[in-house]
Recover the amino acids of this structure.
């Protein structure tokens, strides 16, 4: 069973490489039962969206 | 109607300079990249309806100049200097996770309300820049190569002279630090 520290590592890596099946299943299970990591995963998506915006000069 | 180019360039110059400095962390190199961008912009014949589309175009030129600079300084981000960044990482780790690797109560990530609304606020981007600036220099460089300049991790490894697993660790550290800074300094206060 993954702990939160390990889950955050995978949630970062899924932005950079395809996770293995075992990693995906482990992460899915962890995020399902862990509200903090569930929020963290959304935050990774928001962070990437913010970076896209900033990196393309689309900020107000 | 065409923009008054010279005036617009002067107005946008500080934005361009901040953007370059964040990524190059070298005032001289940033100044050079911006100068080259302005030169290219003045000789270009594109027409723009608004300042925002003009800014987007300038940033895209500047991004390429930054990429060129990074490529010409290849391997400047050495493994040893990345190791120096790691001292602060352990402190952050202890603040966020307990000994079993679970979130500390006070550090459990919250829900970020309405990020799109935040993106429309200039104040959000000030906080965002400040948080980027607070990342250790080499960590920030690798992160921005990935997220702003669109490098694939393979290429970052090559340019930075580090292994891919090391690259993933560095990117993870950057994201962890950045989201923690944003949560503390923006989203935690914005919750209703």
């Amino acid at each position: 069973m993954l702990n939160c520290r390990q889950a955050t590592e995978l949630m970062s890596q899924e932005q950079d490489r395809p996770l293995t099946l075992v990693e995906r299943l482990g992460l899915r299970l962890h995020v399902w039962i862990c509200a903090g990591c569930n929020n963290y995963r959304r935050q990774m998506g928001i962070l990437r969206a913010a970076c896209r915006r900033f990196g393309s000069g689309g900020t107000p | 109607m065409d923009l008054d180019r010279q005036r617009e360039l002067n107005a946008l110059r500080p934005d361009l300079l901040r953007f370059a400095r964040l990524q190059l962390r070298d005032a001289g190199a940033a100044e050079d990249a911006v100068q080259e961008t302005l030169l290219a912009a003045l000789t270009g014949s594109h027409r723009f309806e608004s300042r925002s589309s003009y800014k987007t175009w300038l940033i895209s030129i500047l991004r390429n100049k930054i990429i060129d600079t990074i490529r010409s300084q290849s391997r400047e981000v050495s493994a040893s200097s990345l190791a120096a960044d790691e001292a602060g990482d352990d402190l952050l780790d202890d603040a966020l996770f307990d000994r079993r690797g679970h979130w500390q109560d006070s550090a459990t990530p919250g829900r970020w309300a309405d990020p799109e609304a935040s993106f429309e606020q200039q104040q959000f981007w000030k906080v965002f820049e400040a948080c980027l600036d607070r990342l250790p220099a080499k960590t920030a460089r690798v992160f921005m190569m990935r997220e702003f300049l669109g490098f694939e991790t393979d290429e970052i490894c090559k340019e930075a002279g580090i292994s891919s697993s090391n690259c993933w660790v560095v990117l993870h550290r950057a994201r962890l630090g950045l989201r923690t800074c944003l949560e503390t300094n923006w989203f935690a206060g914005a919750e209703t």
